[in-house]
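Internal tracking record. Fields below are filled automatically when a chain is submitted to the structure queue. Please do not edit lines marked as system-generated. If the sequence contains nonstandard residues, flag them in the REMARKS field before resubmitting.
Queue: standard
Priority: normal
Entity type: single polypeptide chain
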Amino acid sequence: MILVPVKEGESIDKALKKLKRKFEKTGYVKELRNRKKFTKPSVAKRDMMMKAKYVQHLRTMQENA
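SYSTEM-GENERATED OUTPUT FOLLOWS
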């Protein structure tokens, strides 16, 4: 359960913003969206490899610059 302490005099909008930020950090919504559809393990592995190649490319470009 996510708790957001609200200080006296703090606006509700600010408290909601804190709640949304904490909720996003937990990754709960992302997990629910991933569970909605099934992805084959081979497709998931391919996506992971493509992301790793992309990140590696960015790092090498940053080192060369």
